[in-house]
Amino acid sequence: MPEIAETYSLGLPVEVSKIDQELKKLWQESQGTATRASLVNLAVYCEGPGSLSKNTQLMANITENHACRAIVIEADCNAKENRVEAWISAHCHVSSVGSKQVCSEQISFLLKGGCTTLLPSIVFSHLDSDLPFYLWWQEEFREPMDSQLWPWVDRVIYDSQGWEDFRAQMGLLESAEEEANQRIVFCDLNWTRLDSFRFALAQFFDHPASHHNLAKINRVRIDFAPGHRSTAVLFAGWLAAQLNWQNGKTHMPNELSFVSSSGSKIDIELRERPGEPISEVAVTTADVEFLVAHAKCGDLLEVSRGKPGENRMPQLMPAGKNDPVNLMSEELMRGGPHHVYLHAVNRVRDLL
Amino acid sequence: MNRAADQPEPNPLREGLSARAVPQPCAIVIFGATGDLTHRKLVPALYNLAADGDLPPAVTIVGFARRPKTDDEFRHDLEEAMRKFSRQPLRDEIWKNFAASIFYHQSEFEDEAGYKALAKRLDEIDKNHGTRGNRLFYFAASPDQFEPILKHLKAAGLNQTCEGSWARVIVEKPFGTDLASARELNRVIHNSFSEEQTYRIDHFLGKETAQNILVLRFANAIFAPLWNTHYVDQVQITAAETLGVENRAGYYEHAGALRDMVQNHLLQLLCLVAMEPPTDLSADSIRDEKVKVVRSLRHWSRDEIALNVVRAQYAKGAINGEPVVGYRQEKNVNPDSQTETFVALRLFIDNWRWADVPIYLRVGKRLPKSATEISIHFKKAPAVLFNKDLRALNVLVIRIQPDEGISLTIHAKVPGTSFRIEPVKMDFHYGTSFGKPSPEAYERLLLDAMSGDATLFARRDEVEQAWAFIDPIEEAWHAKKDVPELFFYPAGSWGPEAADDLLVRDGHAWRRL
Fold this sequence. Notes:
The structure holds 2 protein chains of 2 kinds.
Chain A: E1 12-14, H1 19-29, E2 34-36, E3 40-46, H2 51-62, E4 68-76, E5 83-94, E6 101-112, H3 115-125, E7 133-137, E8 155-158, H4 166-180, E9 185-188, H5 189-192, H6 195-202, H7 208-215, E10 219-224, H8 229-242, E11 246-252, E12 255-259, E13 265-272, E14 278-284, E15 289-294, E16 300-306, E17 315-318, H9 324-333, H10 339-348
Parallel strand pairs in A: 2-6, 3-4, 3-7, 4-6, 7-8, 8-9, 10-13
Antiparallel strand pairs in A: 1-5, 5-6, 10-14, 11-12, 12-13, 14-15, 15-16, 16-17
Helix pairs in contact in A: 2-9, 8-10
Chain B: E1 26-31, H1 36-51, E2 59-65, H2 71-85, H3 92-99, E3 102-106, H4 112-129, E4 135-139, H5 146-155, E5 167-171, H6 179-192, E6 198-201, H7 208-218, E7 232-240, H8 249-274, H9 283-295, H10 302-308, E8 309-315, E9 317-319, E10 322-324, E11 342-347, E12 359-364, E13 371-378, E14 395-401, E15 405-413, E16 421-429, H11 430-433, H12 441-451, E17 457-458, H13 460-477, E18 486-490, H14 497-504
Parallel strand pairs in B: 1-2, 1-4, 2-3, 4-5, 5-6, 7-12, 8-18
Antiparallel strand pairs in B: 6-17, 7-13, 8-11, 9-10, 11-12, 13-14, 14-15, 15-16
Helix pairs in contact in B: 1-2, 1-12, 5-6, 6-13, 8-9, 8-13, 9-13
């Protein structure tokens, strides 16, 4: 590849009207040494100053495992002048099957002023045809939600962890979906963060002999890091939705309760502890505790079950990583709708 | 793919998670635990499953073999092998945890007392490790040991289980050396285990691309109308390797390429390509359709075999510029060996879908490159307009290994003022499109066996029907008179000219790989 293929760089500045021509030239200059690959259009939108370079770096890492047409947008909505600057670049990696370079192309935009009017036209004109469109929205949603943009989105990716008003944000997303009259898949990275813990807990109950324990759960403890209360509440929502617990209530900010279908009460304690977003989950029945905890070393979870005070045989499982590249990679690996997420949200919407 | 009836009810916490349900805890007993397969494939596969969190905590491995060895020595040997052969680098903390569930049981295969001691040990493991009486017996020993192992397992009561638990047996190929021995082997197995408990492993079926054949055919509507005699001109399947016989001469001298590769791997691939859509994705629905393909293969008379099957043996030559010896000069090979290291077949499937479509199979050692590929060659468009002078066909290629993927050759106009048309290739590479590496075939297959899913394992009737097709060819080759010629080809070439001639008379040629 020519010099402009260097990762982490915004690449070659180009006129917006000549992006396609310049991209074509970029591939011609590679003289067949690189393969262009793309499975999705992945656009990332951010209003933070300097986000173009930060997101370019993320895209360089994400494209190692997920070939895509990356569209990176930084918007300065308060700028007085209306102006668009653009760059093109390619992220190239040696493929897993040999020495061939596999490249994803990136188009970067700096939008100044008039964000809402510029965004749809910028996105629409640069989508790779026939591929799904994933929009990674790094800002809070705000009104008005662009009615032109949303009907084009197949998956909207966001992180509810930093939301100040969960209900309002979800409300905006749901109305955008309704207005767009199509099924946009909501992908919350705050939910993706829970994958390894959900998986580790679920495997306790794969065996039919363990199923009866699900109906006997009376207490749950979730340890979360400062700033991650919403992550812990989503976990509680997942348990409630999947196990049909109703009537969620908050007694103290970090004490929740639900009522099972048989009428018994389930207490959920949320404990703030420094460390990983979720560092430990204990699910307890009258006589067994199912424990999932971050191992002391490495990115592993230690899972065990047993009676309190009993010697346990812990097993190690992958813990996943809580950085944007890994969370996005997890999200891009999965397909289909997120019914389970929406059920979980609905159980705890008022508790978040 | 579906699960067996003895599998768990859905776990509500599993809904929406991308990983499949963890199988039930079990003890995996490997017969032939000190052998290559255990070290290179089986234990690395189990470790990788554990590292990915796909195994339940209570899975234990018991290595059963003759050599005296302690648990710790066995673990140490495996650890060394793991460092060489594992797909994922060995992580000490995971290995330590995993190795604590590995045990070694020393016994002769014919020693009844060894099996009684094994039964006792498995009971203790159930008690201490929570394996719940579930047993998976893996036969990685040589086939002549299967009978005593099975007999003693039965005598020790290890083929039976308590209510709610299961016992399964995984059998490695070869599944016999002909129809009679395959039937005998099946009889011997079924004296101790039922067909539902028997998993005949063919690692080709565990490969991602082999499984993708079904997805390509039955999840893409564009191919369905074309997948028949009206539109398909020919089908080719090639399994080529650069390796010679290596250290397998003892086995290979008696097996040869036809038994070693065609009877199992190539016919299994052919079944996936040629089968009708199954009624559902259950193991038996898929296997019902596969066996119909083998049943429909045209059987040749002795004269026809000489015309439709070519066998050959590699002579000295060069691979990647390095000189290599001929097969007869290899260690432990008879200097007058008649064993084929290459075989090419011209087949027909006599059913409605495939009538008159020639199917060409070719497999060989010491060929110029290692590749397993299936190609579907579509018929020419009507010879009018652009097609008057076109020679190339549209070809759909399914690359099984390496560089797994799919490509389609179409015709395109060469830019310019004239109407020159050239074939161009649309190419899909797994490695390019999906960064995540595929699991090893043994990982998938072991997990399936633990989960009771037999879809990717060969059923008794598939194996026997395949031998019924192969046997007449072997008989012709080993007859006392009018024996078809054994050809020779230089190592590093694509086989003898006779293999090319098989296709030339149909107006075809082998695809260039």
